[in-house]
């Protein structure tokens, strides 16, 4: 805080007037006039001096703060202030400071907390809706199989030819396996979502996404060599990237999923590019490749995630993208398709919010 944002006032006793310990800035005269007019100009400060500050000066308490309040000066300009009362060498000391920046910071964090709370309520409703949808999908897929199995068992009991009975038995076994697979996929999917909920609710930590991306590239080096695909990691030269709001273990899994997807879709000689850059209020990771989106993947981003999952419940690509989308959205981020570039690149982008802390950890890249 600069000296222009701070005024120190002192007095020997409650009967005397406050006097500034040095030159005072213009805002002090505009709002409070002088040390003698403090209580008259500001009802809030009058109450603070007569209450908490007096108890501090008389009771030997080290210091007490007023909290932030708002005042307007004779020129009509509104400002935010904060006062501290303490005792120094027998003198009653009152420190007045401008709190505009602190007020904005507190409001920003309050707004962020409100947005997170609202986002969590929306996620809870969305989760409930998707759970119901998934249960409906499983029900709709399982019921026809149950009917098929009952009819197969009935027909098998009416046949005399052993070879036909064996064929029906094999068909029944496969139908039963299919029904078990449907329930297995549903249970696995429910488990994945349940694991991700604590990532937002209990593990809001700043994660260095560049570090995660480097580790993902290294862990997939053998796969890239096997596919004959090169992987390049890039950032904006001279750019500064803040840490992101996520849980590191799950963010690593999401990053590895989108990288592995790009590698498996690429042809020998292709290049996959992981590009990290700051975005509005967060960080964007773009995964560029030379293979266009499939029709199913395009439909996934065009429709709601639950609808797309319902369309292809057993697709590994569909499950992987849906898994990544759910994780990113749980952290308050977004995911979408990258528009084809001039060099014919296609791909995906993922955006996450920066970690809202008083002192953000940032990674700066050389120019």
UniProtKB/TrEMBL annotation:
InterPro entries noted in UniProt: HATPase_C_sf, HATPase_dom, His_kinase_dom, HisK_dim/P_dom, HisK_dim/P_sf
Top class in the EC scheme: transferase
The keyword Transferase appears for this protein: yes
Record's keyword terms, sorted: Kinase, Phosphoprotein, Transferase
Location of the Histidine kinase domain: 136-335
Domain of life: Bacteria
Record's catalysed reaction(s): ATP + protein L-histidine = ADP + protein N-phospho-L-histidine
Gene3D superfamilies to which the protein is assigned, alphabetical: 1.10.287.130, Histidine kinase-like ATPase, C-terminal domain (3.30.565.10)
Keyword Cell membrane applies: no
GO molecular function: phosphorelay sensor kinase activity
EC annotation from Swiss-Prot or TrEMBL: 2.7.13.3
Pfam families assigned: HATPase_c
Protein name per its UniProtKB record: histidine kinase
